[in-house]
Design a protein that fits this description.
The protein contains four helices and no strands. By secondary structure, the protein is mainly α. Helix 1 packs across helix 4.
């Protein structure tokens, strides 16, 4: 599947609300902090911006697709970007621990990655043929 920009945004929104929010709420309960929701929100908003860049970059690949190994690489620098925003800009007075951030971000990312490469393709087979668009 070659996702369109609107398809990428719709899929990101769906996965964030259904999968990401479920996992983040688990971390809210475990850590007794709202920071996991903030991380999820920042990942969603920054991901919308990154998707514009990713969509343009995909056009340089021969099949116009984004290989999973590049998704893993993208998650690393997206996580670093969000960590910098959280640790340096947003939460100067109530810093979460680095381990809490890494555990939260990596678990949410892994859950959405697995869902996008398995559950979405099984439960919604036409999603792939519409460029990732839901509507």
């Amino acid at each position: 599947m070659t996702p369109t920009l609107s398809g990428s945004w719709q899929t990101r929104f769906f996965l964030t609300v259904v999968v990401g929010l479920t996992v983040a709420l688990f971390f809210v309960i475990v850590f007794r902090s709202n920071v996991p929701l903030l991380v999820l929100g920042m990942a969603f908003v920054s991901g919308l911006i990154w998707d514009v860049f990713y969509n343009r970059l995909q056009k340089f690949f021969w099949d116009h697709d984004w290989p999973p190994v590049l998704q893993v690489a993208a998650s690393v620098y997206e996580g670093c970007f969000i960590a910098v925003l959280i640790f340096l800009v947003v939460l100067l007075d109530s810093l979460p621990t680095g381990a809490m951030f890494v555990l939260n971000y990596s678990t949410v990312w892994l859950a959405t990655f697995i869902a996008s490469h398995s559950l979405l393709r099984i439960l919604f087979p036409h999603w792939r043929f519409r460029g990732g668009r839901w509507f």
